Amino acid sequence: MSGKLFNKILLTIGFLSLAHAAYSAAHYRTFLRLTEQEFTKLPLDIVVQIVVSLIMIIYYVVQVVGNFKEIRATVDMQAKSWDTLGNFPSFYHFNHRGKALSPSYVPENGSDEEMTSYEL
Prior knowledge:
Elements: H1 2-34, H2 44-65, H3 73-77, H4 82-85, H5 111-118
Main location: endoplasmic reticulum
Family: Belongs to the membrane magnesium transporter (TC 1.A.67) family.
Signal peptide: 1-21
């Protein structure tokens, strides 16, 4: 448990370091405006701090998050049967035009008039 806490502390330090680098970059830009100099690039110490902070954040986010899920679909789908794989209740539609193909279909009142007006 102490390892997880240590990783969270280092992740926080990484975010604070990145925020400090952003503040330093903004402060440097303000300094250049006040001295009326052109901006060409950030100083090397700010760039190094940004890169190290990002690497720390990426590494410790992966450490803090925990175990990843398998990418292979077979691991998740092994317990499911073929009947449950194709079962999506949100795609059920009961009132559709396919009912007109049924031999026992009787059109509602007024539907006959609409159908004859569209026939050629």
